What we know:
By secondary structure, the chain is an alpha+beta fold. The chain is about 20% helix and about 15% strand. The protein is built from six helices and ten strands; from the N terminus they run ββαβββααββαβββαα. It has a five-stranded mixed beta sheet, with helices on one face. Strands 6-7-10 form a three-stranded antiparallel beta sheet, with no helix packed on it. The structure holds FE2/S2 (inorganic) cluster. FE2/S2 (inorganic) cluster (FES) binds next to loops.
Amino acid sequence: MSHTFTLDGKTIYFEEGQTIMQAATKAGVFIPHLCYHPEFKPHGSCKLCTVKVNGRQTASCTMRAIAGMVVESDTPEINDERRTLTQMLFVEGNHFCPSCEKSGNCQLQATAYHLGMMSPHFDHFFPDRPVDASHPEVLLDFNRCILCSLCVRASRDVDGKNVFALSGRGIDTHLIVNAKSGQLADTNFTLHDKAAQVCPVGVILKKREGFAVPIGERSYDKQPISATVEAKQEGY
Length: 236
Ligand code: FES
């Protein structure tokens, strides 16, 4: 049985058990997000998807829809906060977009454009992070990791391998590879793993395939991330 709530004044139908994000996506309404992926259990960590429900802030990817709730998402106040979170993600890592193979296909970059981010605003941390080129097929560039945990969830829940994990706490949290050496080559990771397909930024990159699609012709070069909401509904 379907019920309804309102999202920025629009009536949204939902099925029992659906989250606000799921119902909004199904209705074709884009809510910015980075750690949400329709094929995985929500992680609720990036907070980009924060909305106001009856005046109180909550993550829309984890909050179940309730009939009659009044949800605000696309407001100047909420988008300001999302922009600040995005700026923080940019300065916490080392994101050199013009030289990144993922440029134009990167959800972080596309979200920054969507939110009208014009500068990083904060001082860059310039963290000292490694690149792991040990694997024959895949390069890991930890500089771009935004700790969404999608590779962790994909490797654990789909591939059944637990190749990745998040280690440390707070600002020291970082992505690690589960091998004694810490190197991807010493795991059973392959290019065909689900974990190889889900990185929303440019951490997990296929070797020897640089710039196969020219800049200017990539997904978010052609359409803004907000227009991809239907693609996400079906999985991507
Ligand atoms: Fe909801 Fe990241 S998408 S917290």
